[in-house]
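Milestone 3.1: sequence recovery, worked example.
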C-alpha cells in the first residue's frame, strides 16, 4: 500500500486504549511508516465520543476490560472504524472468547506478530477505505449525471424515451408525454412495441423482432431510424423521425430514443406529391404519373406476354362549354368526366388528365380487343348522360383513339402518338366515335367501332 492513499484520506485517525506498554513502541513504529500517529485515549467515554465524530479510524484496544470492548463494538459502524484487540500474551483472558465476536471486531494483535502484522492490517484497512471512497465518488458522479440527464431531457423540445435493451420503457420526458398524449405512469414499464404502428398482427410483440428499432437495440449501435410511426393515446397514428443513441452500454444497456413529430412535414410532402403527380383540377394522375405507370405496364406486358391498351379521350366542342359557363363551369365538367371515366375501369388501370380537355386511360393486361372496345363504348355512353353544371344539365361527347401494345418495336412516345392519331381520325370523321390505331379500312357499320 502506497502512502498516496493517505492523501485520499487525510482524516484517518489511530487511537489506542489500554493497550499493553510493551506493544506501544512497535505499534508507533509501524504506523509511522504510513504517516500515522498513535493517540492514546484515557477513557472509554472519550473514545466513544471520538469514534462517533470520526469516519475513518483504527483503534488498538487492550483486553483489560471486556465490557468496555463490547460497548465499543456495539456503537461503532465497522465500515467507519477498524477495531484491533491487543494483548501481551497468547492466552485470552478467561471467558472473553464467548463474549466477543472477534470476526466482527478484528484480529488479536500479539507482541510476537511484530510490526509486519500491523502494517498489513493498516494497508488492508486503507485499501478498503480507498475503494469505498472511489465507489462513493462514482455514485455521486452517476447521480449527478442522472440529474443532469433528467434536466437536459426535460428541456429538449424533441420527445425522448429511455428504454432497456429488450425494449421496455424506463422514462419519458415531458415533450414525449405531451406529444403522445399519455401520462408517465401509463408508459413507464410498458413495452415499446405497444407504441409502434407498424405491427401487423394483434400481438405487437410478435412483430417486434422485425422492427428496425429492435435491430438497433440488439446490436447496441447508434442509428438514425428515419421515418416511423407511433400511436397516440387517442388511437391516431403519429409520423415521427426517430434516432437512437446508446446511453449506457454493456450487459444491461440503456438507450435514448429521440423522436420529432413530422406530421406537418408529411402533410406538406403529400401536398407536394399531389401537385407533382396529380392534376390540380380533377385530382387525376397527371402526365408524369401516367408515363411512369405506362412504362411499368409496358414492361409487364412484355414479361408476361400480355397486351395493354391506351385510350386517348378528347371532349368534343369543349370550348363551347367554357364560353357558356366560364372556366369554372368547364372545370366542373372536367371533374365530372374524370369521375365517370374512373367508374368505367378496373382497380389496376389508370385514368389521367393529359392536357386541357383530353384524358388518357391505360388498361393493363387486356385479353381481347373487343374487351377494350366494350370499355370505350361504356365510357361514351356514361359521358353522354347529362352533367349538372350549377343546375344546368349538359351533355358531353368525346372522340376516343385506341392503341395497343406490344406493337412492333415502338416505345412509349410512339404508343401515345398512335392513340392520339386514332383520336384525330375520329375528329376528322364526324367526332363522338371510337377508332383503333391501324384499322382505318375495317369499319363496322352502325356502331362506329373500328377493328
Amino acid at each position: 500500500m502506497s502512502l498516496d492513499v493517505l492523501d485520499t484520506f487525510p482524516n484517518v485517525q489511530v487511537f489506542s486504549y489500554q493497550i499493553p506498554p510493551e506493544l506501544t513502541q512497535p505499534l508507533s513504529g509501524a504506523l509511522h511508516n504510513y504517516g500515522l500517529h498513535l493517540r492514546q485515549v484515557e477513557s472509554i467515554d472519550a473514545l466513544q465520543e471520538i469514534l462517533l465524530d470520526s469516519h475513518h479510524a483504527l483503534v488498538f484496544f487492550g483486553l483489560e476490560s471486556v465490557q468496555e470492548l463490547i460497548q465499543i463494538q456495539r456503537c461503532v459502524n465497522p465500515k467507519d472504524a477498524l477495531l484491533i484487540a491487543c494483548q501481551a500474551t497468547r492466552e485470552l483472558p478467561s471467558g472473553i472468547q464467548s463474549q466477543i465476536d472477534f470476526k466482527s471486531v478484528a484480529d488479536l494483535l500479539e507482541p510476537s506478530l511484530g510490526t509486519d502484522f500491523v502494517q498489513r492490517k493498516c494497508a488492508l484497512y486503507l485499501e478498503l477505505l480507498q475503494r469505498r471512497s472511489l465507489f462513493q465518488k462514482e455514485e455521486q458522479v452517476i447521480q449527478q449525471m442522472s440529474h443532469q440527464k433528467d434536466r437536459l431531457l426535460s428541456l429538449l423540445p424533441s420527445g425522448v424515451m429511455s428504454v432497456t435493451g429488450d425494449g421496455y420503457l424506463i422514462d419519458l420526458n415531458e415533450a414525449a408525454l405531451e406529444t403522445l398524449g399519455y401520462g408517465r405512469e401509463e408508459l413507464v414499464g410498458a413495452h415499446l412495441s405497444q407504441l409502434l404502428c407498424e405491427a401487423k398482427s394483434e400481438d405487437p410483440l410478435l412483430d417486434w423482432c422485425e422492427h428496425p428499432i429492435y435491430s438497433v437495440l440488439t446490436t447496441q449501435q447508434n442509428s438514425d431510424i428515419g421515418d416511423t410511426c407511433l400511436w397516440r393515446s387517442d388511437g391516431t397514428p403519429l409520423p415521427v423521425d426517430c434516432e437512437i443513441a446508446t446511453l449506457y452500454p454493456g450487459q444491461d444497456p440503456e438507450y435514448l430514443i429521440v423522436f420529432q413529430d413530422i406530421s406537418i412535414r408529411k402533410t406538406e410532402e403529400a401536398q407536394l406529391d399531389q401537385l407533382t403527380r396529380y392534376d390540380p383540377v380533377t385530382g387525376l394522375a397527371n402526365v408524369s404519373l401516367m408515363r411512369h405507370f405506362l412504362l411499368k405496364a409496358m414492361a409487364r406486358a412484355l414479361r408476361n406476354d400480355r397486351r395493354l391498351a391506351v385510350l386517348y379521350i378528347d371532349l368534343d366542342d369543349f370550348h363551347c362549354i367554357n364560353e357558356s359557363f366560364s372556366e369554372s363551369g368547364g372545370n366542373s365538367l372536367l371533374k365530372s368526366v374524370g369521375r365517370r371515366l374512373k367508374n368505367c375501369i378496373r382497380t389496376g388501370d389508370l385514368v389521367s388528365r393529359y392536357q386541357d380537355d383530353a384524358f388518357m386511360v391505360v388498361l393493363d393486361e387486356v385479353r381481347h380487343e373487343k374487351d377494350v372496345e366494350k370499355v370505350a363504348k361504356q365510357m361514351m355512353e356514361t359521358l353522354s348522360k347529362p352533367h349538372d353544371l350549377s343546375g344546368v344539365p349538359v351533355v358531353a361527347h368525346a372522340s376516343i383513339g385506341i392503341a395497343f401494345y406490344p406493337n412492333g418495336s415502338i416505345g412509349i412516345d410512339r404508343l401515345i402518338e398512335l392513340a392520339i392519331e386514332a383520336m384525330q381520325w375520329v375528329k376528322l370523321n364526324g367526332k363522338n366515335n371510337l377508332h383503333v390505331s391501324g384499322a382505318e379500312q375495317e369499319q363496322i357499320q352502325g356502331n362506329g367501332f373500328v377493328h
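The CA atoms of residues 10 and 50 lie 16 Å apart. The chain has a mean pLDDT of 78.
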